[in-house]
Write a structure and sequence with these properties.
Length: about 325
């Protein structure tokens, strides 16, 4: 049995290299845009701008949760959490998705109310200028956070950035639509609540996506097929073509967990098995940052070794372009 923990997240080293720094950017940007957007709504009375401002309230809540999540997720493993705290990121992303859905409900209610009770819009020009400024703040923050999300492999930072980008594009559509009202006749005021409903639909889509991804992480969903294929090829290459089965994967925050059974000739010494496992681990670490790898070595001649179908996961038949799911009678045994 060979187990490799990988290296501790470098992000815990210092504030300058920590994802907390970027989560703090999101909190600051959300507060700034909240002030700007409520100012734009107060100046114009537009329900569309009010819906945009209400989403900023959600942005602040989400940013604070993201800050708490990355702070917890990047704590090192301890005796009570031997696999680390990475799943805290999924809790944050799921909660953010639910908050987005709640904001969409509020926006829809405000739009329907405006349909039933139309109101005159005032001072659209200054209000739209303020709304554009708020959108630019969110755009710059989201771009910085997306780069950080890729660097730290953080679903929390990505979720917060995607949320901010959704806010940017809905705000852009809202501003464009309301700008038309500057020159359009009063009868076109219905555009305002219609835009709010379109924004709500877009926000619902984003919220559902975040909730689904977070549930997948909490339920130990396997890594994407492309990554599993890469893992299989790495094992095949580094082990010299040795067969494997029971390849099981999952992800918690930025860390990937990979475990499988490696089938070797029974005459292979402990040292030779260890060296081979080290070669496989080195190749996997070259492809993926900070994986935790567990390899169980079994003698290929022993019929009891061919029990991969009982454990789940996939097998080496997949690498050769075979079946996506391994049959109960291991293909490894036949080859």
């Amino acid at each position: 049995m060979s187990t490799s923990q990988g290296t501790p997240p470098a992000t815990a080293a210092s504030p300058s290299t920590s994802p907390r720094r970027y989560a703090l950017y999101s909190v600051a940007a959300s507060v700034a845009t909240l002030i700007l957007k409520f100012g734009a709504w107060w100046a114009t009375g537009s329900v569309g701008l009010l819906s945009d401002a209400l989403e900023s309230v959600v942005n602040i809540s989400a940013a604070v949760m993201a800050l708490a999540a990355v702070t917890l997720a990047y704590r090192p493993a301890d005796s009570d959490h031997a696999y680390g705290h990475g799943k805290a990121e999924y809790l944050s992303a799921g909660a953010e998705g639910l908050l987005i859905l709640l904001a969409a409900t509020g926006i829809s209610w405000a739009a329907i109310t405006r349909f039933m009770h139309p109101a005159e819009l005032a001072r659209l020009g200054p209000g739209l200028v303020v709304a554009v400024a708020a959108g630019l703040v969110n755009l710059l923050t989201a771009r910085v956070m997306l780069k950080a999300a890729k660097r730290f492999d953080s679903i929390t930072l990505e979720a917060d950035a995607r949320h901010l980008l959704t806010d940017v594009w809905t705000s852009a559509g809202l501003v464009a639509g309301l700008a038309v009202l500057l020159v359009a006749p009063p009868s076109w005021r219905i555009i305002d609540p219609i835009l709010a409903l379109v924004m709500a639909a877009n926000i619902v889509r984003t919220g559902i996506s975040l909730v689904r991804r977070s549930l997948g992480g909490l339920m130990d969903q396997s890594l994407p097929d492309s990554e599993i294929d890469a893992i299989g090829m790495a094992i095949h290459t580094a082990s010299g073509g040795a067969h494997f089965h029971a390849l099981r994967t999952r992800k918690a925050g930025p860390r990937r967990f990979i475990d499988f059974h490696l089938l070797l000739p029974g005459t292979t010494t402990v040292q030779e098995s260890h060296d081979l496992c080290q070669a496989v681990e080195t190749e996997l670490k070259r492809i993926f940052p900070n994986p935790q790898i567990t390899i169980h070595v079994e003698p290929v001649e022993d019929p009891k070794s061919h029990d991969g179908w009982m454990l789940g996961g996939t097998c080496s038949a997949r690498v050769a372009g075979g079946d996506k799911e391994c049959p109960k009678q291991d293909k490894d045994k036949k080859d």
